[in-house]
């Protein structure tokens, strides 16, 4: 009967460790320290392939209040597992209509360029603020 507690503890440890994500050496700030209140910035999403968010193939957000919320949210701390999903969107940050930052994301498999964990909510939470582009 002494084996049962050891097996139970081993199973619990396996479940806990298998669900943990590997941390990055340093958090990655997509928006760095940009002054998004200035109104000079615009975040764009351009569909590359695969599933889209509702019917938004290409969209942008230029509302400073929403961009500041996203800036606080988009602090990446974890690695993603390597997956064969491809990329659904190209995400572009522009200042005065000039590209200053760009990455690729997959919302289904929840990762971005560099195998960094990108929760789908980082985009879907803000879809009410998406403006469609032609």
UniProtKB/TrEMBL annotation:
This is Lipoprotein. It comes from Chryseobacterium luquanense. The lineage of its organism: Bacteria, Pseudomonadati, Bacteroidota, Flavobacteriia, Flavobacteriales.
